[in-house]
Prior knowledge:
The protein is mainly α. About 40% of the residues lie in helices and about 0% in strands.
Amino acid sequence: MGSGVRPLIRCHQILLNHCAVMKIRAVRMEQSQIELALPDPHPAAAKALAKWL
């Protein structure tokens, strides 16, 4: 993922964690799931997988 994604995720986490305190109306929670095809050969370690992502 790009370096711009992490701050966006962090901001989203802060808003969700402080929703009740800050009286932010959350319209609804939506869960999503994605699947990625791993490269062949598969990354041998978690750090290699993180680098590939």
